[in-house]
Amino acid sequence: xxxxxxxxxxxxxxxxxxxxxxxxxxxxxxxxxxxxxxxxxxxxxxxxxxxxxxxxxxxxxxxxxxxxxxxxxxxxxxxxxxxxxxxxxxxxxxxxxxxxxxxxxxxxxxxxxxxxxxxxxxxxxxxxxxxxxxxxxxxxxxxxxxxxxxxxxxxxxxxxxxxxxxxxxxxxxxxxxxxxxxxxxxxxxxxxxxxxxxxxxxxxxxxxxxxxxxxxxxxxxxxxxxxxxxxxxxxxxxxxxxxxxxxxxxxxxxxxxxxxxxx
Length: 263
Fold this sequence. Notes:
Elements: H1 2-11, E1 24-28, E2 33-39, E3 44-50, H2 60-72, E4 81-82, E5 88-91, E6 97-98, H3 107-121, H4 133-142, H5 146-169, E7 174-176, E8 185-188, E9 191-194, E10 201-203, H6 205-216, H7 220-230, H8 239-261
Antiparallel strand pairs: 1-2, 2-3, 3-5, 4-5, 6-8, 7-10, 8-9
């Protein structure tokens, strides 16, 4: 790995006078990228290296534009350097930690999570891109091997019947992160940060809420509580739509992961 990092350092102006030996390098988790914390007494960075196979899934230009908009809202860190491939160097949020499922049992933390989502969803900014659940599901399903397509066929058929009914009841699109797995939510002393904006676009507000519920493994009561806090200002949301989205996005995530693993 070190020879590759040396080549990458040479591409990044902020690191071109450094070598990997100048840093303590710690691997960080990630599905679509390889991530490393680079730190010494003077510097502390997160280096994100996109995996080439993710180019099939991610619009890097849209990601950059949307992350800048989210950074302007104060809910996302802004890379100090990035290139068109998605290679980024971002200051480390050293005092932050990833959320855990247990955090959703703490009402203060839960309200902080919802407040950050509401700030994004109600901001009025226009993200680049607009998700189409039916198209995404068909696209990811088409990337699967024939045995996997056979395995998923009943779930896909049910989803294709449900999506048009769901869309008739849910026409609101807002700026959305669209990948709120727990690793992408960092809790710090100054509040909650959302990271990794690769799949961000205009989407139904249910998308982020359902992804959070799935990622944290929330039960029925916890999911309803999350939705209730989200709607505290009078927003009209339906429990049934939230659970429909949970099922559909679980299937979408399963297809995406299978397509990525078998790329």
